[in-house]
Design brief:
The protein contains seven helices and 14 strands. The longest helix has 19 residues.
């Protein structure tokens, strides 16, 4: 399996591995490397993909330069290789939500993690990220997303996931494909707060959406998030 590298925003790289036997048309597992004075990876991938992902990073910079290891929520494809990265990068730390650290990461990580408040900021040196808590959106009590302010990139994890092996970055509509993927897997928590949480992300007016599964998006990102929120509203009505 090959891990492909694409720059989806200035100095933000998508590292993508396509797994053909998941779902009807395969599934991509994407990590995002933010190249800054304090380099940051968002999603580690599962342990089995670590060799290809670390090799892809090494083609861009030494892996041991990594400073921050981050992910959207506790799940093997999000943080399975967390401790392998901690071993490969001696100065790196995991940074995750306060609730995630308390219930899981304090125990699971080989080095103590940094606990992030609900709207914490990290100055990476040349890049500035906000951690925005999104509990149970799309799933996971500990869920959060990252917003890189200088490029307007929302690293939104599993939101707007699509099956298949599309382009690294597209301006085409993704919402229909994301709705079909949700119908297929039923992976999201549908709660009274789901749609309003997504609309809160839309209000950031991002220009790029870095998506964990499927293509990332550049274009009317706020409109795409609002359309996704509308779909969550529809699903909530169906449950009541």
């Amino acid at each position: 399996m090959e891990t492909l590298i694409d720059e989806i925003a200035e100095r933000i790289y998508r590292l993508s591995t396509f797994i053909p036997d998941i779902g009807p048309t395969g599934f991509t597992f994407n990590q995002f490397l933010i190249d800054a004075d304090e380099p940051t990876i968002f999603h580690t991938g599962p342990r089995g993909l670590f060799p290809g992902i670390s090799e892809a990073i090494a083609s861009l910079m030494p892996v041991d330069r990594l400073r921050w290891i981050m992910f959207g929520h506790l799940e093997a494809d999000e943080c399975g290789a967390m401790n392998l990265f901690l071993e490969a990068a001696p100065n790196a730390q995991v940074a995750h939500t306060a609730i995630g650290c308390m219930v899981s990461i304090d125990d699971l990580a080989d080095r103590p993690p940094v606990s992030l408040g609900p709207d914490a900021s990290l100055d990476l040196g040349g890049r500035h990220i906000r951690s925005i808590d999104t509990p149970h959106v799309p799933h996971g009590w500990d869920a959060h997303v990252l917003y890189e302010e200088s490029t307007g990139t929302l690293l939104c994890g599993d939101l707007l996931s699509q099956v298949g092996d599309g382009p690294a970055l597209t301006g085409d509509d993704l919402v229909g494909a994301a709705v079909q993927t949700e119908d297929m897997f039923g992976a999201s928590c549908i709660t009274p707060q789901s749609a309003s949480t997504i609309r809160r992300l839309s209000a950031l007016k991002p220009t790029t959406l870095a998506i964990m599964h499927g293509s990332s998006y550049s274009g009317e990102a706020s409109a795409a998030l609002n359309a996704l929120a509308d779909d969550f509203d529809r699903r909530m009505v169906q449950l009541t």
